[in-house]
Amino acid sequence: MSEVSVSEKRVKEPLVKISKRDGHKWYHSVLLNVGAVATALIIGGIFIAALGYNPFTFYAKIIVGNFSNAYYLRALVAIFVPLLITALGLSAAFKMKLWNIGAEGQFVMGALTATTVALLLNDSLPRPWGVIIVGAAGAAGGGLYGMLVAVFKAKFNTNETLLTLMLNYIAVYIVQYFEKTDFFKRASNGIPAFKRIDEAVWLTKIQIGNFYFDTAL
Q1: Cα–Cα distance between 142 and 162 in angstroms, integer?
Q2: Helical ranges in the chain per DSSP H
Q3: Which has the higher per-residue pLDDT, 18 or 57?
Q4: What is the mean pLDDT of residues 17-40?
């Protein structure tokens, strides 16, 4: 009887089991990270090739092109910085084994909150204080939007993966709605667009030759 139960337990065990490996050397972590990036490039290259383009030429143009002039480099930094900040924020959730797939929605709601406060402040405060308040408002807006998921998870044990994913779409629709309201919109060839916030709440720019970047970096 005991032998049968033992054999049944062995059958029920998964064929593949993923577990954390403790005590590995630092260079193992480096190799794993390099391997992950290389795998992503290879998979991306397969899709690029399927579209009829040479993946090596494609990647070379991306790498060389971004550093060919100051304008392209500024554009790279402008895209890279918010993605990096968002990734760092998500890492806290992933460390706690919570699958937060709502980075886009939380980022959008943070941006909407920051824009709202920036338009309300306008130029009423000097640059350092205005920037700090707007930045704090953005962090609070994104954090509160993410906290909705935490509340549902704690109270009703909802699936955070599905809920954060669905809230991405809700955030986008909320922004599209406010874009057409009198407080936010401005005339732009008949197309609704957000008003331009005052330079008093812009981040400070640091100039190095022909290249400049703001303090978000």
Answers
A1: 18
A2: 2-12, 26-50, 55-66, 70-95, 103-121, 127-156, 160-178
A3: 57
A4: 83
